[in-house]
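Following up on my earlier thread - several people asked me to post the actual chain instead of describing it. Fair enough. Here it is, all 341 residues.
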Amino acid sequence: MKTILGKALFASVMLLLVTGVQAKGRLTVYCSMQDAWCQATVKAFGEKNDVKTAMTHSGSGSTFAKIQAEKNNPKADVWIGGTADPHLQAGEIGLLASYVSPQMAELGKRFQNLAIKGDNTTDGIYAGVVGYSVNTEMAKSMGIDIPSSWEDLTDPKYKGNIRMASPQSSGTAYTVIATIVQLWGEEKGFEYLARLHPNIDQYTKSGSAGQKAAGRGEVLIGIGFLHDASKLIKSGFPLKLVTPSEGTGFEIGGLSIIKGARNLENAQKFVDWALSAEGQNIAAPTGAFQVPTNKNAIVPKEAFDLSKVNLIDYDFKKYGSNTTRKKLIGRWAEEIKPLAR
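Reply from S.P.:
Thanks for posting it. Predicted structure:
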């Protein structure tokens, strides 16, 4: 009897020990980058650090909502990718943990500032330029010149031939609207969005869907982040990338540790690795052509040279705040979305 009890006790102790070891070797990631990039990043980190990883892929808006819903019982440890705005909003309302990575010194100054503005709850891992792509074959067959500005897109000749995402579901679309507002002010910015609206054939859920549609010839023009279209061009789609002449905004991809992470030590290791040149060099081979934030990482030849683009001084602190985001999205939903097209 004692022998049986002794074996049972030994088995129970061993189970606890094994379970503890397994828990230390785990990491759950929410990823809002391109799916192939997400998978490659999580796999490479897991193999390098002997960590068992799990990853869920979804857009930044959806992920933000998921983290909010799980705030009392977090299901993930890290959130990587998607525009920094929702990351900053999540940090503002206490959903993220503060962490200063030793890799911070290797980031460009513009990207270090993001972490400072976000009270070190969010780091920048890549940058992408807002603009639009034009199907050159369609433009030629329609006898239409390639537009070059934001204002050009309001021309009635483009009616029903432009596609972009809805800011209610897409961080990309929110960045577009925030860009317009910062260019002209809120009132004139919304006047512009009202004039653009008749030319939009539909507002999609995904930020990259508009440019994919333009590549396939479903519409002439897709608005979004231009690195999404760079991948399409490399695959042979007939697209011309346009950075609007008035100036344009840009995103910084966010990287955050979720408050209450069950695997905090591995989450911090993941942040350090993702900010390193090694971690950021994972992107280009998967077809992701954003500009890396680490000064020692390789910049893909397909990426935009940020120094040659007329970028606005995007205010990530203001437009990444929960108050401003709710205000602009709410106003768009009430004033622009219901308009006739």
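The radius of gyration is 22 Å. That should answer part of your original question.
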